[in-house]
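hiii, so i know i said id send this last week but things got crazy w the move. better late than never?? heres the sequnce for the chain we talked about at the cafe, plus the structure i predicted for it. fair warning i was half asleep when i ran it
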Amino acid sequence: MVEQIRFWGDLGPSVAAAGTAARCAVVSAVQAYEERLRTQGLFAPWNLSESLAAICGGKKMPRTEVTKKLWVYIKAKKLNNGRIITPDEKLKKIFPAKVGLLKPSALACEGSSSPE
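okay and structure toks below
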């Protein structure tokens, strides 16, 4: 977001005229906001189970990254046949049987605990 601020005048005439101190305050506020977004809500890091961590490659990561890593694994092993995913030995610990296209992320959430 800080990179998106091209002209300080876009933030209003008071910030543009206020000088360096006001600009630093705006930049630090924007950076604090971006940090909060990375640690809350959809991007909050989850504690993964052992079987899920073996596939994803980490013990703690956001749900969005878990879904991406699952799909990379599924596509690399060619486990999807159209809209059906047939799990191999590693995935059977997470998915009990064949699942539909939209189920992997929901089942992955069951294999992880909520963020701290």
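btw The chain has two domains: 8-39, 44-113. thought thatd interest u
miss u guys!!
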